[in-house]
Amino acid sequence: MMCDCRSIGRLARYIVIAVEDGGAAPRRADAPQANANYPRNEQFCRVTSSWWNGIGSQAKIQAVYPLPWGLQVSGTFKTLPGIIQTANLVRTNAQVVASLGRNLSSCPAEGECSATVTVPLLPSGETTSATVSGALFDQRLNQTDLRLTKSIRYSRGRIQGMLDLYNVFNNRAPQTINSAYGPAWLTPTTLLGGRLLKFGAQIDF
Predict the structure, then answer these.
(1) 158 in helix, strand or coil?
(2) Beta carbons of 139 and 82 less than 8 angstroms apart
(3) Euclidean distance between CA atoms 170 and 134, whole angstroms
(4) CA angle, corner 134, sides to 93 and 1, nearest 5?
(5) 120 contacts: CB under 8 Å, gap ≥ 6
(6) pLDDT tens digits, one per residue of 93-135
């Protein structure tokens, strides 16, 4: 990850001031214009992931090898970038009202306000299908699958038995993680499925 943070010191002072949820502008008149919940722009921090962790880092290999006695072994291997790690800090209106100089825009005009705002603590760039950029990435997904087949011919067709072993090395890379900053931050909520053995047969006639 490459991060151009020449003015990161000034950015830190604006983070608390710009904690807002789409209402009125921050009270600091000299604060640079940036998204309220992502108070950064090209003046502060440009997030550019490395090629290996960003788009284009997928690799897939497949091989098939015939064996004697009608046997055939095949395998696939794939490596995918880990999911982007984010850290979101949830703050109540009471915690940010002093910095904002007012209540959050989602608060009622009168009475107690229970509204909250989520503050991203880690920079992240585009996460569209064409671009993936972030500051931190989780464990890469490396998965190996194997298949052994045996063909038996008979008068009217063929029977092919299949033995599949998915995720041979039992890689349990996280698929989703807890992004709420706190004691459970980065705790996996979904893992890649574990090693699986599967039998099957195909009858052609």
Answers:
(1) strand
(2) yes
(3) 27
(4) 130
(5) 37, 38, 86, 87, 88, 89
(6) 898 888 888 888 888 888 888 899 888 887 766 555 455 567 7
